[in-house]
């Protein structure tokens, strides 16, 4: 893993960036890309034509026309669960030139493998995970983590120019393999979402006597509920390391429960 950015990233150019899937996260990223002077176009199952017009983005309801629009970069911003279906439905024969395909999904091995299976061989592939969103990044991206792996890159200029978008904003650039990312994310992101879902199922609420620790738990619940259950499902289904982490949580709960019950029995014996 490296927190540095290659020297080649120091030079960049304005890019024509196509976005597949124009939901909340895509819109969040698009604002900064437009601010930096990049030209954006988008396609999505939902009709975002008016929103795109307001933002100065060309919207394509026809995916073939979108692919034929001479994009330098095509950024895949679908949900984890819909990635394969969306990619396999795209008519890549409409591409007029090779493009750099970039995904921004929260799971990386699955995204990498799917892209390599479906895309034309002459397409470059850059797997990324901007580890922030509209809430955590609303005051800027400085010092926020941006993970990436150059999976199959031949056009280094285009790749470097895309990475420069995040470097300019002050992101902490982390180059690592998709496998390393998923292993670490299972221990951090997936665990965080799981605990947040536990708290949601328990329906915890603020009380008049909250400690700072409990306030943090209430906020975790709120943050988790702002994300879809589809995202949480995707973090589990398509990250092979998440399965073990869920087992570890179950084991830890049973171990802790056993300790409490044992201490309770000991106290009762003393007080008899």
Which descriptor suits the 3D outline? Answer: elongated
CATH topology of the largest domain: Rossmann fold
H and E string: EHEHEHEHEHEEHEHHHH
Sheet/helix structural class: alpha/beta
CATH architecture of the largest domain: 3-Layer(aba) Sandwich
Please bin the fraction of helical residues: 40-55%
CATH H-tier superfamily of the largest domain: NAD(P)-binding Rossmann-like Domain
The spatial strand order of the largest sheet comes to 3-2-1-4-5-6-7-8
Any idea what the radius of gyration is?
A: 22 Å
Number of helices: 10
Please write the CATH class name of the largest domain. Answer: Alpha Beta
Sheet with the most strands?
Answer: 8 strands, mixed
Keywords: Oxidoreductase
Protein name: Prephenate/arogenate dehydrogenase domain-containing protein
GO biological process, one term: tyrosine biosynthetic process
Organism: Eucalyptus grandis (Flooded gum)
Describe this structure in words.
By secondary structure, the protein is of the alpha/beta class. It folds into 2 domains: 11-176, Rossmann fold, CATH 3.40.50; 181-253, no CATH class. The protein contains 10 helices and 8 strands. The chain has helices spanning 24-35, 49-55, 63-67, 83-88, 109-118, 156-168, 178-202, 212-225, 229-237, 240-270; strands at residues 16-20, 39-43, 58-59, 73-76, 100-103, 124-130, 145-152, 172-175. It has an 8-stranded mixed β-sheet, with helices on both faces. Helix 7 packs across helix 8 (212-225) and helix 7 packs across helix 10 (240-270). The protein is elongated. This is Prephenate/arogenate dehydrogenase domain-containing protein. GO terms for molecular function: arogenate dehydrogenase (NADP+) activity; NAD+ binding; prephenate dehydrogenase (NAD+) activity; prephenate dehydrogenase (NADP+) activity.
């Amino acid at each position: 893993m490296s927190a540095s950015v290659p020297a080649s990233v120091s030079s960049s150019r304005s890019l024509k960036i196509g976005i597949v899937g124009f939901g909340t996260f895509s819109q969040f990223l698009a604002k900064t890309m437009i601010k930096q002077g990049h030209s954006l176009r988008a396609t999505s199952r939902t009709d975002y034509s008016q929103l795109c017009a307001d933002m100065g983005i060309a919207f394509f309801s026809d995916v073939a026309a979108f692919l034929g629009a001479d994009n330098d970069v095509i950024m895949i911003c679908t949900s984890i669960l819909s990635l394969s279906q969306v990619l396999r439905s795209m008519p890549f024969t409409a591409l007029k030139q090779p493009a750099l395909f970039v995904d921004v999904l929260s799971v990386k091995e699955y995204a990498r493998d799917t892209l390599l299976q479906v895309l034309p061989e002459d397409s470059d592939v850059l797997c990324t995970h901007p580890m922030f969103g509209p809430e955590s990044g609303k005051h800027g991206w400085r010092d926020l983590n941006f993970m990436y792996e150059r999976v199959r890159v031949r056009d280094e200029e285009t790749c470097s120019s895309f990475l420069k978008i995040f470097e300019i904003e002050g992101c902490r650039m982390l180059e690592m393999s998709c496998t390393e990312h998923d292993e670490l994310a299972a221990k951090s992101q997936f665990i965080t979402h799981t605990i947040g879902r536990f708290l949601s199922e328990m329906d915890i609420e603020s009380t008049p006597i909250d400690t700072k620790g409990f306030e943090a738990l209430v906020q975790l619940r709120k943050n988790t509920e702002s994300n879809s259950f589809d995202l949480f499902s995707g973090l589990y289904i398509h990250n092979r390391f998440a399965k073990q982490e869920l087992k570890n949580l179950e084991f830890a709960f049973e171990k802790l429960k056993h300790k409490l019950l044992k201490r309770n029995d000991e106290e009762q014996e003393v007080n008899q």
